[in-house]
Each structure stands twice: as C-alpha cells, then as structure tokens.
Write a structure and sequence with these properties.
Number of strands: 9
Strand order of the largest sheet: 3-2-1-4-5-6-9
Bound molecules: NADPH dihydro-nicotinamide-adenine-dinucleotide phosphate
Oligomer: single chain
Strand content: 15-25%
Radius of gyration: 17 Å
CATH topology: Rossmann fold
Helix content: 40-55%
Length: 239
C-alpha cells in the first residue's frame, strides 16, 4: 500500500536528516525543507522532493507543500524540526541572535503548522510533530532565549492538541536532551561552547540523531486513535 506524504523541516543535518532516512526506509514519500538543498539531495532518498526553503518564509513553505501534495497526495504528517541554538548571556548577547531563535524556532514552527493544519482538519486526519527540547521543560545557564523558544514550543503544542483533538489530528511533542549534531556549532561564544562540550564529555557522551528519529517514528507509527502526547528522552547519564 502507498504510504502517505510526510514533511520534515530542517532535514539537511542532524535529527531532521536521520528522521528523513528512517521514514523513507519505511516507504514514505517525503518533502524535505531547509536552506542547504545540496545536503538534502545528498541523502539520495527515493520519492523525495527537496526544496531550499527558509521556514521563516511562510509563502515559500506553503508553495513547496502544495507542490509536494500535487505529486504525492495530502500531507499526513509534518515534523517541525528546524531550529537554531545560539547560547549566550543576555547582557552580552546580540539581539540578532535571540531574534533569529524566535523567528526560526517559534515562528518557523507556527508557519509549518499553519501550512498543513487546514487540510488535516478538513480530512479529519493528520499528525503534527514538534521538536522541542528538555530545555523546553527546565532551564539551563546561558539558555535564556533558547529556553524561551522551547518552552513556547511545548505551550503551542499542548494548546494546539487541545484545539484539534476533536478533529482527529494528533499533536506530538518530542523533547530531546543533548544530541550529537551541528546545533552547538552556531553558538558564537567560545567559552560557552567549550563548557557545553566538556559537560557532554563528563557524562560520557550524548544521544545520536538516530535515537530521536526512532522516537519520532515510534510516536507516528501508533494507530491514529493513539496520541503519544510527549516524549522526553536523553542520555541515561544526563542529569
Ligand atoms: P542541526 O543544526 O544539525 O540541524 C538544524 C536544522 O535546522 C538544519 O537542517 C538547518 O538547515 C535547519 N534550519 C535552521 N534554520 C533554518 C531556517 N531558517 N529555515 C529552514 N531550516 C533551518 O541541529 P539538530 O538536528 O540538533 O536540531 C534539530 C532540532 O532539534 C532543533 O529544533 C533543535 O532545537 C532540537 N534539539 C536539538 C538538541 C541537540 O542537542 N542537538 C536537543 C534538543 C532539541 P539549514 O541550515 O540547511 O537551513
């Protein structure tokens, strides 16, 4: 049987790329969105459309989804995964950094929801998977704006779930602890980066992107009448 279309944002590296590989192996056609199209095309996944879309650009995201739906049928799930983490102390951090986190992690996620929700509600079927973080449940040093964006993802997800559950649309929040990806690489404060790296080493390593992909796949693969509302997962030795 043909599997339905899944959209993954931030699919050019880390968790998004690992999720794309896994869901493609399960037979789903995919729409992959991120700015680095070469990295998504290099995954060489079958039945997959890759589009260079910045998630803060709502119209571009909607156009790419419309294109994918005309080729593969309606979107059954979106994984709102695109995100940036620019750690910093508020007294010293450039406002450009916290603006970017709010734009990508919050507005970009809302753009993804907006682009697919009307269709899901009309069809009374669909799944929205939002990637938050343990930093959306508790706070950490130098994480003020990042935690703010991820606490917002939890609030948005839970309130959205309440709003659309009656229309048979599932909303799932995945909240990972530290994962080995490119995420930390964008932080500009070298002392904070070094501290984070030694924290990871002290606990004997962190999760792999594939661990999060497996959690996403597990939640999505449940029957439509089962909604795993939230998965929080981290390396066993993460405090
Ligand atoms: P990566 O940096 O490896 O991946 C981030 C992805 O987001 C990239 O594909 C990047 O693509 C994309 N992205 C960034 N900005 C934009 C944008 N404006 N428009 C479209 N895509 C964008 O990090 P992870 O895989 O770790 O991050 C994925 C998600 O997981 C994030 O939401 C992150 O907050 C969350 N997370 C990660 C944890 C970790 O420890 N790694 C822990 C908890 C949560 P491109 O640059 O090509 O646009």
């Amino acid at each position: 049987m043909t599997k339905p279309l899944i959209v993954i944002t931030g699919a050019s590296s880390g968790i998004g790329a690992a999720t794309a590989r896994l869901l493609s192996a399960k037979g789903h056609p995919l729409l992959l969105l991120a700015r680095r199209i070469d990295r998504m095309e290099a995954l060489e996944l079958p039945n997959t459309l890759c589009r260079a879309v910045d998630v803060t650009r709502r119209e571009a995201m909607m156009a790419a989804i419309a294109e994918a739906e005309s080729r593969f049928g309606p979107v059954d799930a979106i994984v709102n995964n695109a995100g940036v983490m620019l750690l910093g102390e508020m007294a010293r951090q450039s406002p450009d950094e916290w603006e970017r986190m709010l734009d990508v992690n919050v507005k970009g996620l809302l753009n993804g929801i907006h682009a697919v929700l009307e269709g899901m509600v009309a069809r009374k079927h669909g799944t929205i998977i939002n990637i938050s973080s343990i930093a959306g449940r508790k706070t950490f040093p130098s994480h003020v704006a990042y935690c703010g964006t991820k606490f917002a993802v939890h609030a948005i997800s839970e309130n959205l779930r309440e709003e659309v559950s009656g229309q048979n649309v599932r909303v799932i929040t995945i909240a990972p602890g530290a994962v080995e990806t490119e995420l930390l690489g964008h932080t500009t404060d070298q002392a904070i980066k070094d501290g984070y790296e030694s924290w990871k080493q002290d606990m004997g390593g962190v999760l792999k992107a594939q661990d999060i992909a497996s959690a996403i796949d597990y939640a999505y693969a449940q029957p439509q009448n089962v909604c795993i509302r939230e998965i929080v997962l981290a390396a066993t030795r993460q405090p």
